[in-house]
Amino acid sequence: MVVLLLCCAAVQAQERLDEVIVTDSRIPKSRKNSGKAVVKITAKEIAKNKGISLAQLLNQYAGMYISGAQMHPGQNLSYNIRGGNNRQVLVRIDGVVVSDPSQIESEFDLRLLALDQIASIEVVKGASSSLYGSGAATAVIDITTKNTATKKTSLNVRREWGTQNSHDQKLGSLSDVQRQYLQLQRSVAKIGLSASINRFTSDGMSSVVGTENDAVTKENIQFNAKSQYEGPWAWMAFYQRDMIDSDYDTTFPAYADAANSFLSKNHRYGFAPSFTKGKSSVQAHVSWSDTERDFASNFPINYTSNVFTSELTWRYRASEKLTLLGGGLVQDIRSKSSNAANGFEHDNVAFFVSAHWQHPKGYALQLSGRNTVHSTFGAHQTFTLNPYYVFSFADESYWKLFSSLATSFIAPSQYKMFDPNYGNLSLAPEENKTLESGVEYVSTNSRITIVGFEREETDVIDFVLLPDFSGQYRNNAETYKVKGVEIAGDFSFKNLTLQANYTFVEKVKQDPIRLPKHAANLGVNYDRPKAQWGAHLRYVGSRSDTNFENGKRVHLAAFTLVDARVSFSNLIGDASASLSLTNVFDAAYTEFYGFTTLGRNLNIGLQYAF
Asked: Burial, 300: exposed, middle or buried (Cβ in 10 Å; 0-12, 13-18, 19+)?
């Protein structure tokens, strides 16, 4: 594959593949001047992928494996990015870190989000706790929602219909999956206002391999306001509500249809003022997030949580070569479950500093450090050392060599610390140390990136079964290692674009579940003024899983999925249409043992912009 990528790089074309990114250093700059492996998913890329979920889109990129994405739409997701898990991934939405402290791993649930409401996504892989705090060990997923507006009122309406078949079924009804999206935007008195609603319904497949269909409803509501006047002051405010209501089945004592359901709701409120003058810029974020989860089954339970976050950052361009960054954060985090008499709570206070130095001859260095004070286990420090070198050519192509050594930590969740049955107040945070090196070549039509990494994990928190058959969370004395290689190439011809990537991940001397050593993607897009065609091939290597009925390991075979799509822009006036066929060859495969996966399915979408 490397030879193929290098050969394609020689083709001449029209488009330069370089973007402005923010997440890797919290300083806006071109990707050329970044020393990390960054995935940038633009609005154009999102628009090409109508009819799929956020998790399915992320799976198209190197190092990203969100298991559960090809299953029932209410299925739990596992964030196996660079061989990690949910607690090692940090999610930001519109500049605010989001999480659910009532979850066992305290992660944010990506099932809640609607891809139609997202403007762009940046993913920085590797350790970033020195800039973002706990959880940023394998990746930071930074999501920006749609919040632009013009003086003219605009209304965007989209409707989708789709089937929802498992393997070896005839194409079902187009009413099995339905999605409605509406966005209204208007600029009033130099304030951009935006409101949108997205609704998704599904009633076409069973959660486990069974005969009873498990219905799913998702609803997303957003309101955004953003200043558009000139001057040093700017601000934005938002309200976001996400909901998922899903039936699900049972896995114990056997995989079987069951009348179980869960309802999860998340509300987020935020206000972000900023002031820029001369070489300085100050940005503040104040946000409130609350989540409620209700499970109806033979073991009913309710969870609630809320997080208040206040963060202030200051950026100063000291010279043409040096930019400084500093900031502080205060969090109040609380959660409660119906099986615990009292709620859980703790505070976080953090201070961080960063410096980015870049010489005109191409030498560059980014340094950052953070001190986090947790009200239960005390202070914890993390750092990042990231040197890189850019060798530029006259035609604006360049080679970039980069390396980084960074530490990160994962604070034990409130459940693991405070739960009356299994909690342990003496838990220490997990520590990760990541070393990575890479090379990137960019020309006017291509980008090729090769990255190798090794992560060392210590003080990993495991659930330990005690002699009296009770259990407790404890820090493991073992040191674990994860290593891998990522190869990615983007190529642009006159009307044709190609994206290819390959990922190798190995947990050294470990036996992970649901994690493939090998994964690859190949995407092809052909654009014309009135129509766009695309195809995507995804390969996932063999894995192992656990049979919950007997506790034994089972082998999951490798699989390959092929999707195809076509869209027509300005079909009639401002109307556009899309059609996609996923799993074209109706491949049989398994993501989680005993659970249903998606077969061949058809999705049709119509959109009109007023």
From this structure: exposed
For the segment 435-485, what is each residue's pLDDT rounded down to a tens digit?
999 999 999 899 999 999 999 999 999 999 888 878 999 999 999 999 999
494 SS3 class: coil
- Residue written as tokens 């009925």? 549
What contacts 24+ positions apart, CB below 8 Å, involve 51-55?
51/160, 51/162, 51/179, 51/565, 51/578, 51/580, 51/582, 51/603, 51/605, 52/115, 52/580, 52/582, 53/111, 53/115, 54/110, 54/113, 54/114, 54/115, 54/118, 55/110, 55/111
User: For residue 595, what is the DSSP state?
Assistant: B
Q: Which residues are bridge partners to 556 per DSSP?
A: 543
Q: Tell me the pLDDT tens digit for each residue of 513-551.
A: 999 999 999 999 999 988 999 999 999 999 999 999 888
- HEC states along 212-233? CCCCEEEEEEEEEEEECCCCCE
C-alpha 146/C-alpha 150 separation (Å) is: 13
Task: Please report, for residues 88, 216, 257, 349, 408, the alpha-carbon distance to residue 330 in angstroms, rounded to integers and kept in the order given.
Answer: 21, 36, 45, 5, 19
CA 53, 54, 59, 62 torsion: positive or negative? positive
| Tokens describing residue 588 | 């049989």
What are the Cα distances from residue 536, in Å, to 121, 162, 347? 20, 19, 45
Domains defined for the chain, CATH in brackets: 2-609 (2.40.170.20)
264 forms beta bridges with: 244, 293
Q: pTM of this prediction?
A: 0.94
Residue 121 C-beta-side C-alpha neighbours within 13 Å: 24
Longest dimension (CA), the chain: 72
Cα–Cα distance for residue pair 453/459, rounded to 1 Å: 20
